Amino acid sequence: MSTQAPKRYSPLWVTLHWVIALLVFVTFYLGLSTIDISLTEKVGILRWHMPLGITVLVLMLVRFIVRWRTPHPEPVTVGNAFLDKIGEWTHYLLYIFAILMPLTGLMLSVTYNLPPVVFGGEGSLPRDLSPMLHGLVYPIFAALILLHILAALYHQFIRKDNLLARMWYGK
Ligand code: HEM
Ligand code: HEM
Prior knowledge:
This protein is mainly α. It has one domain (11-167). It has helices at 11-33, 39-69, 81-111, 115-118, 132-159. The longest helix has 31 residues, at 39-69. It starts with 10 loop residues before the first helix and ends in a 12-residue tail after the last helix. One protoporphyrin IX containing FE binds at residues 24, 27-28, 31-32, 34-35, 42, 46, 49-50, 53-54, 56, 101-102, 105-106, 108-109, 114, 129-131, 134-135, 138.
């Protein structure tokens, strides 16, 4: 019995992709807004930034499990083995960094014991709060997302292969 690869990703997968993408954008925006502001203002932003970031982590883990259990379309080819490899690796790296980003955030939260301050209103944020690994990982994650979006636009408008339809609902 031969099982043919589907033409598009499953509806659950598509939903996870777009919900996670939206959450990543909002969490990123909030994270960047914490730079160069007072510690009091920072607490208000972190109250949203931290739970949203943890939601990204949980959904990425669900997606990772779905990834290996659901049939998915054949990798797309642009007719150049090197570019195809870059596409494949960008996807792997997006998984890794979308998980590393919240994990390094959680490390910050544990190191500085932030939950009582952020969610319990106890005391104030430490003056020496510094983003550590979280601050090193985000530029790489941002570059990968940018590359990914540029690739999607290249497929859609230059190659005109309607790749976006694979990551949308339909038969
Ligand atoms: C998709 C997930 C996440 C993204 C994209 C993200 C992004 C960012 C960015 C861009 C910053 C600014 C870094 C800087 O000051 O140089 C930041 C700051 C911060 N993030 Fe996240 N973050 C995520 C998840 C989390 C999680 C899960 C937590 C904790 C539970 C967290 C805790 C923090 C804290 C405490 C800061 C402030 C650091 C400081 O002011 O020194 N983040 N985040
Ligand atoms: C406007 C933003 C985005 C656009 C236009 C977009 C577009 C797409 C498209 C068209 C595909 C299907 C590629 C194929 O069929 O081979 C795809 C797959 C993928 N996207 Fe995005 N994407 C966006 C944001 C993101 C973000 C923020 C992430 C990071 C978590 C992400 C992670 C992935 C991954 C890992 C895949 C590979 C398929 C999978 O394993 O789920 N995307 N994206």
